[in-house]
Amino acid sequence: xxxxxxxxxxxxxxxxxxxxxxxxxxxxxxxxxxxxxxxxxxxxxxxxxxxxxxxxxxxxxxxxxxxxxxxxxxxxxxxxxxxxxxxxxxxxxxxxxxxxxxxxxxxxxxxxxxxxxxxxxxxxxxxxxxxxxxxxxxxxxxxxxxxxxxxxxxxxxx
Length: 158
Description:
Elements: E1 12-21, H1 25-35, E2 39-46, E3 51-58, E4 65-71, E5 86-93, H2 96-105, E6 116-117, E7 123-127, E8 143-148, H3 151-157
Parallel strand pairs: 1-4, 5-8
Antiparallel strand pairs: 1-5, 2-3, 3-4, 6-7, 7-8
């Protein structure tokens, strides 16, 4: 396994989002929106992802960090977006397909679903919180979302 930075065909550019889960997103909004002043930019509801979320913004422009306030559609179904309060951290990456291929070849375990469109419209995939026998490297308990950075984010952070 090489540790050379030059061999890595992608760059992690910065934090794209943090996702916070709870049983009631109104309670999350009371803090994040009403007290801390984040603005709700959109909402996203997905049966497949078992989520009803408000997508908020921290900062402005291409370097703004998304803060997702999530509650489950059904608290008894998976994924259980409310059982880990800090649900996941999203990282901007400049070349998502190359990152996934390179990381997979080095034993990183990805969650099921592969690369797909995320709630904010960017291509995404998730590094599984735990490794397994086939892919021993995971997020050590943290779900990590890799997010394809659009050109303005690459220009601002790259």
